[in-house]
Amino acid sequence: MNNYLISIVGPTGIGKTALSLKLASHFNTDVISADSRQFYKEIPIGTAAPNAEELEVASHHFIHHKSIKDTYSVGAFEKDAIEKLELLHSSKSVVVMVGGSGLYVNAVIKGFDEFPDVATEIREQLNSELESKGLEFLQQELKRLDPKSYETIALKNPHRVIRALEICRSTGQPYSSFLNKHKAQRHFKTISIGLKAERPLIYERINNRVDQMIENGLLEEAKAVFNYRNMNALNTVGYKELFNYFDGEWTLDFAISEIKKNTRRFAKRQMTWFQKDSETQWFEYDTDIQNIINYLDNELKKTS
Fold it and tell me: Is the pTM of this model over 0.85?
């Protein structure tokens, strides 16, 4: 197998974009974005998408290719990304992928588990029970029907709990019994590297980045999409908080402080997700680029 995907992961604000540009230049290749927030062309500031100058360094794919009005799932992204990789690998042996959306990164590298279709009524019933009986009620049902999932999924995330329960109810089998049954075939080998830093430094970088976003026009960007606030693409940090400000519920200073707080929480969840992958080689955020290139060159030689 002579085709490779270099996957760069890490928390938001750590420097993944800058590293991806350096590696794309070194390997004379393209960059695939696996950041689900950067797909949408109307919100470049709040999603920290590469700017025009950065986009000129290397050809990018899946940046601003969708509108917030579009419906775009992780399954659709997996299909599109694999097709794009097959095309790119026909002329380039190495492609770089960068992104902080763990689910989207995994979709490209590993593919998805296959689940049976679920009747709409079951999903609607679970959402109704969430509303009337609360999340804890659903958590206890999951504990009874699928103890393994109860121990492993994010129980505070109602979407995850409902997803597991709808499979349990519709099939009579545990959600966990459908996991890891079929591994997707990939015609490339992945080399995964991650950037890390001490938590206080990550948080400081996040706070500074949010201030920079405000200075760059995040407020005006959020105002421009305010009428589309119910779109799924805008159910994300940076916009939800400013929408509360526009509604008169929060002051601007408080909204900005909440953006910082929620982005820090997001970064913490990112690290928890990415650190589960034992195959990722981690580097300090300020590691000399040549050290990273040397590592990658050695990996390429080992596997070629």
Answer: no
